[in-house]
Design goal:
The complex is a heterodimer of chains A (about 130) and B (about 100). Chain A is of the alpha+beta class and about 130 residues long. Chain A is built from 4 helices and 8 strands; from the N terminus they run E-H-E-E-E-E-H-H-E-E-E-H. In chain A, strand 2 and strand 3 form a beta hairpin. Chain B has a 6-stranded mixed beta sheet with strand order 4-3-2-1-6-5, with no helix packed on it. The chains are: A alpha+beta (about 130), B mainly beta (about 100). Strand 1 of chain A pairs antiparallel with strand 2 of chain B.
């Protein structure tokens, strides 16, 4: 008979990939497009980071469609694939909850830029008390 | 290495015989502390001979739900193996297992 594991058990494809990521205030951050592993000293693989964005997703989709998505995404940004260190993870449930604020993660630079430079200047975009 | 590198990858035995395709990676949250939580360690591979789709959790006893879907998923994955990560000799591709007990359906 196999020994019952001590920690919680997750199937990555079932429980993590494509799940919504929320920040500490419950605001939506992104979806889990892929997961990056790092190797421990004992040779085990550990989940190290959530990878975000079209380039991460294109790697997962693969094939011609993946190449097509990646080539477009690379034209829009030459930076590294945005990632969230898994140390930020606070809880895994129907969504992945983080202990950090969305603003500090920098995983959606275009969205952040649009919010700061365009949406914030639209009359009525802020809360009435601000 | 990424999850997408392993999911979908073919698995062969020590003799090179095909066993199936990785459909999912089972992790246990028992690794060293990472932030406020234990790290997720890859514990085993879910390997299916016939189908590469997800088993939707129907391989677990506590997963209840529409029995028709459960029966269909169990039929599609009737030859699914849970291969411990410690049995992996080479991550490939293809993933090659160490010599040991022969994995059968």
């Amino acid at each position: 008979m196999s020994e019952k594991p001590h920690g919680r058990v997750f199937d990555l494809s079932l429980h993590l990939l494509d799940r919504q990521v929320l920040d500490r205030d419950g605001r939506m951050v992104c979806k889990v497009d892929d997961l990056e592993f790092e190797r421990g000293a004992d040779g085990s693989l550990y989940v190290a980071a959530i990878l975000v964005g079209q380039r991460a997703l294109s790697h997962r989709i693969g094939g011609r469609l993946g190449v097509w998505i990646r080539s477009i995404a690379q034209r829009l940004s030459t930076d590294d694939v945005p990632r969230i260190d898994f140390a930020q993870e606070d809880d895994i449930g129907s969504a992945i909850k983080l202990g950090a604020s969305r603003d500090s993660l920098g995983v959606a630079p275009l969205e952040d830029w649009v919010r700061e430079h365009i949406v914030s200047r639209v009359p009525g975009s802020r809360h009435e008390s601000e | 290495m990424r999850a997408s590198d392993l999911i979908g990858r073919e698995v062969v035995g020590a003799d090179g015989a095909r066993i199936g395709v990785i459909t999912d990676l089972r992790c246990i949250q028992d690794g060293p502390l990472r932030g406020t939580q234990a790290a997720l360690r890859v514990d085993s591979l879910l390997v299916s001979r016939h189908h590469t789709g997800s088993v939707l959790g129907y391989d677990r006893e506590r997963q209840r739900g529409p029995w028709v879907i459960g029966a269909l998923v169990r039929f599609l994955h009737r030859s699914m193996h849970v291969v411990p990560w410690s049995a992996v000799e080479d991550e490939g591709p293809p993933v090659r297992l160490r010599p040991g007990p022969r994995i059968t359906s």
